[in-house]
Amino acid sequence: MYNFNFVIKNYFLRDLLIQYKTVIKFIITFLIVYAVLTFSYKLYLQHASSEVYYPDYMTNLVAKQSKEMLETLGYSAQVIPHPNEPSMKLIINKKYVARVIEGCNSVSVIILFTSFIIAFTGSFKTTVLYLLAGSVLIYIANLVRVVILSIGLYHYPWRKDILHTVIFPAIIYGMVCLLWLFWVNRFSNRSNNDE
Asked: What's the rounded Cα separation, in Å, for the pair 124 and 145?
């Protein structure tokens, strides 16, 4: 009797695995890619600190490019290393408005985007091109986000919470979701199998 129940449970489990093979493959691939990229990024952060590119190269680059964009828009801007924490102080017209931290450099969002695209892979060439184009779009959208957020904090400092925690994250993550949907419906192997 015990062996019979074991066989039935095994058969049921095997059927479930076969039925949801695509979903399980997606989840496992996503988790592996996300874990590898996140671990690699953490290693980068541990070894990337330097005096020239404080606190790390990517965060420093985002801070400096944000400053350049602000100056293009007519603001007097400067970025300086924060004396008490690993970040860059963003100053507009001699008013300290924001700090650019590691979380502002869009790398974590790009890692999430990349993990999803690889988990829902398409052809190699299409996947690589989409990853590059999507990552560049996310990076640019993030720069624009930092600039607009800084301007918003300069003019409307009392709106800090809604600007920083609701509106701008919704914009960046909304864009990532649209890129994912476009990918799944247009380029992934899943969409090609449905045609």
From this structure: 31
The angle at the Cα of 176, spanning 190 to 60, to the nearest 5 degrees, equals: 135
pLDDT digits (tens, 9 = 90+) for 121-166: 888 999 999 999 999 999 999 999 999 999 999 999 888 888 888 8
Read off the pTM.
0.85
Q: Where are the chain's structural domains? A: 2-188
Please tell me the distance from the alpha carbon of residue 161 to that of residue 15, in angstroms, as a whole number: 49
Q: CA 11 to CA 97: how far, in whole Å?
A: 62
**pLDDT value, residue 168:** 81
In this structure, what are the phi and psi dihedrals at residue 91, rounded to the nearest 5 degrees?
-120, 130
CA dihedral for 112, 58, 175, 194, sign (positive or negative): negative
